[in-house]
Design brief:
By secondary structure, this protein is an alpha+beta fold. The chain has 14 helices and 7 strands. The structure holds iron/sulfur cluster. Iron/sulfur cluster binds next to helix 9 and helix 12.
Length: 363
């Protein structure tokens, strides 16, 4: 890695820079492990500026871990709506209940206990232990990976597991006993604001004198880019079934993808099916009723990380038949104006927004 003197030089340069240039963030004004934990979960996959208003709203509604543990899952998911990756919210909720049950409501301060909680992996455990409890434990997220790879010109010939291992080892050797939480946050902050993936701002970087990739003039070579899998495209037909001013919605099974969220019934179009044929088949399979399609209401396109969905939405005024919904957690007829009391996945939330703006047309 580097000599002890080299290590100290890096630690000092980074902490001085952090003291001077760190961005103000609401979770940085506390040593309480609960808000720090919440912020770390929200920041996974989501930008700081997006997270800040969600974090503030969350802490207002669930100011303590016990309050979160006592809350209904529906309320928890509603506060996450728009952040995506809802399993993060479900796990946080379950983990809070587990902390109340097993740890008398106190966030544990050992790696072994933290890692047992739903949604807490090596990264989050490291962040909580170093930031909230001042323990010299490493953290490695996407930003830290980039900084370390460049700082020490770490290349493991493209073997991802070996690369990952080297980065964790390097981070563990570098984190100081004094101010480990600030040091870890500074590393992440440097990656987010200075050591950018493209065109890093080396001229203003506090680590420039120590940076091996910079010395070699090979900054762009580190880290080696990973091959990304192709993005899948799927096409879905969905039904807005209406009856006496109410709309049918169903809740996705708790254990699966986007579990616990509400949606309009429907499903994936198979090859050789028309959009309408797909919808009739799906509704028959999901709800056990035949529907008549009145008209196409809208087409919605939405990109998730791993796939792109095209949602063809049809208006289907209620005809007859007894609903036997077997593939959902529960179902409801809901007044239009109450639709926004429920949490929908992003693509379905777009349907809700349009319905709320013009529902008189589809009663
Ligand atoms: S000198 Fe440039 S490449 Fe090296 S750590 Fe700083 S910003 Fe990143």
């Amino acid at each position: 890695m580097t000599t002890i003197a080299g290590k100290r030089k890096i630690q000092k340069a980074l902490l001085d820079w952090f003291d001077r240039d760190q961005r103000a963030m609401p979770w940085r004004q506390t040593g309480n492990p609960y808000p720090i934990w919440v912020s770390e979960i929200m920041l996974q996959q989501t930008q700081v500026q997006t997270v800040i208003p969600y974090f503030r709203r969350w802490m207002k509604t669930f100011p303590t871990l016990r309050k979160l543990a006592r809350s209904r899952q529906e309320t928890v998911l509603k506060h996450w709506e728009g952040l995506g990756y809802y399993s993060r919210a479900r796990n946080l909720h379950r983990a809070a209940q587990q902390v109340v049950r097993k740890h008398q409501g106190k966030v544990p301060d050992t790696y072994e206990e933290l890692i047992q909680l739903p949604g807490i992996g090596r990264y989050t455990a490291g962040a909580i232990l170093s930031i909230a409890f001042g323990q010299p434990v490493p953290v490695v997220d996407g930003n830290v990976k980039r900084v370390l790879s460049r700082l020490f010109a770490i290349s493991t010939n493209g073997v991802p597991s070996a690369h990952e291992k080297r980065l964790w080892e390097t981070s563990a050797q570098l984190v100081p006993a004094n101010r480990p939480g600030d040091f870890n946050q500074a590393m992440m902050e440097l990656g987010a604001t200075v050591c950018l993936p493209k065109k890093p701002l080396c001229l203003v970087c506090p680590l420039q004198p120590s940076c091996e990739a910079r010395k070699r003039g090979e900054v762009e070579k580190f880290p080696k880019p990973r091959a990304r899998p192709g993005i899948k495209k799927i096409e879905v037909s969905a039904a807005v079934i209406t009856r006496n001013g109410k709309v049918f919605i169903q809740q996705r099974p708790h254990g699966g993808l986007m579990g616990g969220l509400w949606e309009f019934p429907g499903g994936k179009r198979q090859s050789k099916e028309t959009e309408e044929e797909c919808l009739k088949r799906e509704i028959q399979e999901e709800l056990g009723i035949a529907i008549a399609i009145s008209k196409k209401m809208m087409t919605i396109k939405h990109s998730y990380t791993q796939f792109r969905v095209t949602l063809n939405v049809f208006w289907c005024p209620w005809q007859s038949g007894r609903i036997r919904a077997t593939q959902c957690e529960q179902w409801k007829w809901v007044k239009y104006e109450n639709l926004d009391h429920y949490t929908f996945p992003a693509a379905n939330a777009k349907i809700v927004k349009i319905l709320l703006n013009g529902h008189g047309t589809f009663k």
